[in-house]
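User: Can you help me understand a structure? I only have the sequence.
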Amino acid sequence: MTLPRPARRFAPVWAVVFAFAAAGPVVAAGPKWDTVRTTAPATLEELKALQDRVKEVVKKCSPATVGLFVGMGAGSGVIVSEDGLVLTAAHVSGDPGKTCTVVLPDGKRVKGKSLGRDERLDSGMIRITDPGPDDGKWPYLPLGKSAGLKKGQWVVALGHPGGFATDRPPVARLGQVQAARTDTLLTNCTLVGGDSGGPLFDLDGNVIGIHSQIAFKLDNNIHVPADTFQTQWEQLAAGEAIGKPAQAVLGVVFDKDRAEPGARLDEVDDGPGTKAGLEVGDVIVRFDGAEVETADTIRALLRKKKPGDKVEVVVKRGEETLTKTVTLGKR
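Assistant: Let's start by predicting it. Here is the structure, written out as tokens:
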């Protein structure tokens, strides 16, 4: 299996998730959790406050979190308008005009149609074509802003890991923001196959991202920021396949047999890497602010970049740790 992988590939679930989704009514007690806090609970009371906040988010957000079947593929999504617009990942929605099946949390299946997509950013949109249950309207969640997210801020991921299961509501995972950039969000929420396209929420219950890809580890994940959907809204709703730009490259060849964390350089061509001072034998340990588990971490992040973008790269060279700035080239 090649990594990073779209999260819709199926994988074992129960060992890596915990189900806040089954939580019952919340009883208010003790201090309230600050929804933009970036540190861990320091006391039992604070831990309970965080737990109560997560329960509230899950209760509010689960009704609009759906399963998706598009052709032979499966994934997750979230309803974001009363007329049935669903945000998901481009690799889940597929090409515009495809017939979809949208599975509601209670297991009911309704019809849908794929709209626009941006393959490079992995953003996609689907419209439910059946009428909603409330005078034709659908339950939906507000699209929040991703630009103001802080590193360490607590977030909740919902989705259908392993695919939709009739005996299980959307499964919740708690995590923290690792990095927030214009076209990419990184979190340590544990995601597996089937979660692709599912929603990422802040602790106020706003949609701040859509699950895109899993890197080498299940808690090293890439999400499409909500702000990206805002800027593409009209194109996606109109069913446009947004053009894929030239691919950004680093100009290196990685050691494919490396087992340790980091990406070792086997070759550095006469291009961006060489100009930035990278050398054969360097081991990239951080790329654009993200920890590098394998070369696939870098490949996933490169797909979000454009030729000409400047990226900070941290490498180990023998006993030295060096920071280089690479201006990405074009394939």
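Now, to help you interpret it: Residues 8-24 have pLDDT under 50 and may be disordered. The first strand starts at residue 5 and ends at 6. Let me know which part you'd like to focus on.
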